[in-house]
Specification:
Shape of chain A: globular
Number of domains of chain A: 1
Strand content of chain A: 15-25%
Order of helices and strands of chain B: EHEHHEHEHE
Strand content of chain B: 15-25%
Helix content of chain A: 25-40%
CATH architecture of chain A: 3-Layer(aba) Sandwich
CATH topology of chain A: Hypothetical Protein Ychn, Chain: A
Order of helices and strands of chain A: EHEHEHHEHE
Helix content of chain B: 25-40%
CATH superfamily of chain B: DsrEFH-like
Distance between the termini of chain A: 38 Å
Radius of gyration of chain A: 15 Å
Largest sheet of chain B: 5 strands, parallel
Distance between the termini of chain B: 22 Å
CATH superfamily of chain A: DsrEFH-like
Oligomer: heterodimer
Chain lengths: 138, 116
C-alpha cells in the first residue's frame, strides 16, 4: 500500500464561534492533520470568522472557550493566525495600531493572531498544497 | 487552471457575496488566475439597473464592473439559475458567459472557493 502523501494546509475560517461550528470543526481538523504528520501553514480568518480572534469573548464557564483553544493551539504549534483587516475593522476587531489609527476606545486582538490583508490568503493558496474552507453552513 | 470563486448569495441582505468578490479581486491583484461563477441567487448580481436607493445600500454594479480592470479572467453565470430568476440578455450585464454545466466548470479549475 502506498504511503499517504503529506500535505501542507492553509485553513480559512469564515464562520464565527458561538453562532457556527466552523472554528470548532477547523480546530479538530487541524489537530488531526498535525497528528497524522501533515502541516498547517497558516490559518486565515475571513468574514465573521474574525470574531475568533477577539480577546473579549466570555462564554459561560461550562462551554469551550474557542478563542483561547485556538490561541493555545497556534502558539504551541508555531502556526500563524491571520485575521483579514477589512473583515476585522468592519466587525470591531482591532489591534493596537488600528486602535490608534481610528482613534478607538480599545483594542481586542488576541495573541498570537495578527491583522493583515487578503494577500496572506493569496500567499497561503500558493504556498500550501491544500486550502480548506470552514464556513457557517446552512 | 486557476481559482473559481463561486458567488451563490444574493447581492443584498447578506455580505458573503461582496467578500467573495474581494477575494477574487485580491487574487487578480496578485496576478493569480481567477474567474467567477454566479449561481443560485448569486446570479442577481448580474442584473442591470439595480436601484438600491430605497434599501440604503451601495449598488454592487460598480464593484462588479471593476472585475475586468482587476484582471478577473471570466465571469460565468449558471444558465439554469438565470432562467429561474428571469435573467436574460435584455437585463444582464455584458461580458457574462452562460454555463450549462457548472460541475464541468469546477473541474476545469484547480481551486474552488466560496466566501461563506
Amino acid at each position: 500500500m502506498a504511503a499517504n502523501p503529506i500535505h501542507s494546509y492553509t485553513l480559512v475560517i469564515t464562520g464565527a464561534p458561538y453562532s457556527t461550528q466552523a472554528p470548532q470543526t477547523a480546530l479538530s481538523f487541524a489537530r488531526a492533520a498535525i497528528a497524522a504528520g501533515h502541516t498547517v501553514d497558516r490559518v486565515f480568518l475571513y468574514g465573521d470568522g474574525v470574531h475568533l480572534a477577539s480577546s473579549l469573548c466570555a462564554p459561560p464557564s461550562d462551554e469551550t472557550h474557542w478563542p483561547t483553544e485556538w490561541s493555545i493551539f497556534l502558539t504551541d504549534n508555531g502556526i500563524p493566525g491571520v485575521a483579514c483587516i477589512a473583515s476585522a475593522l468592519r466587525r470591531g476587531l482591532v489591534n493596537e495600531s488600528e486602535r490608534k489609527r481610528y482613534e478607538l476606545s480599545a483594542s481586542n486582538l488576541l495573541k498570537p493572531f495578527i491583522i493583515a490583508g487578503l494577500g496572506e490568503w493569496v500567499e497561503g493558496n500558493m504556498a500550501s498544497s491544500r486550502t480548506l474552507y470552514f464556513h457557517a453552513g446552512g | 487552471m486557476g481559482t473559481l470563486m463561486v458567488i451563490d448569495q444574493p447581492p443584498y441582505g447578506i455580505w458573503a457575496g461582496r467578500e467573495a468578490l474581494d477575494m477574487a479581486f485580491s487574487l487578480a491583484a496578485f496576478d493569480q488566475p481567477v474567474s467567477i461563477l454566479f449561481t443560485g441567487a448569486g446570479v442577481n448580481w448580474l442584473r442591470t439597473y439595480q436601484d438600491t436607493r430605497e434599501i440604503n445600500q451601495k449598488s454592487v454594479e460598480k464593484n462588479l464592473s471593476a472585475a475586468p480592470i482587476f484582471g478577473v479572467e471570466a465571469m460565468y453565470a449558471c444558465a439554469r439559475a438565470c432562467t429561474q430568476y428571469g435573467l436574460g440578455p435584455e437585463n444582464m450585464v455584458d461580458g457574462v458567459v452562460l454555463a450549462e454545466n457548472s460541475s464541468e466548470l469546477i473541474r476545469q479549475h484547480s481551486h474552488t472557493a466560496f466566501a461563506g
